[in-house]
Amino acid sequence: MSAPKYHLTSYGCQMNKLDSELVESRLRQRGYVAATSEADADVVLLNTCSVRQHAEDRVWSKLGTLRVRKRGQPGLVVGVLGCMAQEHQRYLLSRMPHVDLVVGPSAFGDIDQKVDAARAQNARIAAEREPARTKHEVAGAGVVAVGDGVSGDRIVRDVRVRPHRSQAYVSVMRGCNMPCTYCIVPTTRGDEVSRPLADLVEEAQRLCDDGVTEITLLGQTVNAYGRDLKGEHATLARLLRALHEIPALRRLAFITSHPNFLNQELIDTLAELPKLARYLHLPAQSGSNVVLKAMRRGYTVERYLARLEQLREKAPDIELHSDFIVGYPGETAAEFERTVDLVQQVGFAQSYVFKYSPRPGTLAAELADDVPEAEKERRNAVLLAAQEAITARQLGALVGQTLEVLGEGESKVDGRLSGRTVHHRLVHFDSRDAGVVGQYVPVRITAALGHSLVGERLADDAAEAGAHDRVEVQPS
Ligand code: SAH
Ligand code: SF4
Ligand code: F3S
Asked: CA-to-CA distance for 405 and 422, rounded, in angstroms?
């Protein structure tokens, strides 16, 4: 019999994508192979996100399609993994008999066994041509498991399973302990749990032994790393210093930082360590103190700006990225304008803008969602336009410069490859030499697009000759 085929789609954040890599690694170790398309798969897994209604709607709609497909293919296994599995376990189990597996984000440790069990069960159903089972029968079969306490982190990571040869993500902590009123993540991901520093260094070393040269550390509040590790004195700064020692590592980044934990130790580290990527994702969420207070973010605009001042004093080349929510309950047009002001004042390199989406069970969901959709739309468009103007100006200023780019793969722009600079700027460059994927190459920037740059790859010696105008080149 041929190997069973799986198809796994990630609907969520970077952490959700890394979880998908871990799930894939488990399945492959058990003999599953990746299907060429979802239609060709015996097992369809959706790794889901609950952060906004839109993310959930995509999954509900996909589950509708899979329900129809399963009528003609009763052996098909459908699994809902991740944050929606945690958030909607009851509904999925009671109302969606075509869903075989519901596995929350902290229960991926034995996902391969769960999938096997679901396949065996469905094979029987298919053989007997029984109608779809009810929730209790499925749950009783022991196939369904939500948050059974097996931490995904304890899976010994198969470092060979990863989408990019030279880049990898490493999750340094799970969960979140912050009280942001609008956010579902603490519910779906649970309490903050940091992984021991030595384990992280070991995992990074194994990744680098396998060809990785760029690592991005992941945590919902990554710069709070270690505060739950009693007696270890583990901090993000210490972790960065330890990882910096790995000779093969060339770039090291971390997302997402919380403004409250941007302390002097981290700022000094950002200033000192040459391998650290020169950007910081530091979501402000709003530029209004009234809204920040209502969100319980724990800082004021003035405090946010004061931290940036400290950062710029020591590490002026760090570029800032932010997230913003527009249309939070009670946000007035004037309060929203303060957010536009903040974007203008800081000059973020990029911002993600989200329309407020009430998440059942959060504190904010108890408030009236009183900013009309059309007004949320308007604020969204205004803020995006403000950010895009800044981005265009910054990108335009890079035209003519030669930047070091880590080749990532085929570009969306025809016939080109793409890669990123040390500031995380996306560059499309005119090389058909797939050998540059995973290599650091000098690229002369010839044009700026809305969110990215276009350039020509230079021969390495040409870059040396023009070294004086290189602004983003790292010491190697
Ligand atoms: N831990 C990170 C990000 C978590 S979720 C942080 O604290 O910055 C990513 C982004 O989604 C958030 O920064 C926020 O801007 C947005 N977001 C979270 N909940 C939301 C909601 N209910 N509606 C709209 N946007 C939301
Ligand atoms: Fe959500 Fe706030 Fe935690 Fe970020 S810090 S994940 S926004 S609760
Ligand atoms: Fe979404 Fe869960 Fe990430 S809710 S943003 S997939 S932590």
From this structure: 7
Query: How much is the pLDDT for 154?
Result: 54
Which residues lie across from 104 on neighbouring strands? none
Q: Which atom of ligand 1 is nearest to the CA of 176?
A: 1
Quick: pLDDT tens for 204-214: 999 999 999 99
Provide the terminal-to-terminal Cα distance of the chain, rounded to the nearest Å.
50
Contact at 8 Å (CB) between 202 and 380? no
222 lines ligand 2 (CB under 6 A): no
The DSSP code sequence of 237-299 is HHHHHHHHT-TT--EEEEE---GGG--HHHHHHHHH-TTB-SEEE---B-S-HHHHHHHT-S-
Please write the tens of the pLDDT for every residue from 309-368.
Answer: 999 999 999 999 999 999 999 999 999 999 999 999 999 999 999 999 999 999 999 999
Separation of 251 CA from ligand 2 center, angstroms? 26
Cβ of 463 less than 6 Å from ligand 2: no
Please tell me the number of the ligand nearest to residue 50's CA.
Answer: 3
Minimum-distance ligand to the CA of 192? 2
* Ordered domains of the chain (ranges, CATH): 5-146 (3.40.50.12160), 155-395 (3.80.30.20), 402-469 (2.40.50.140)
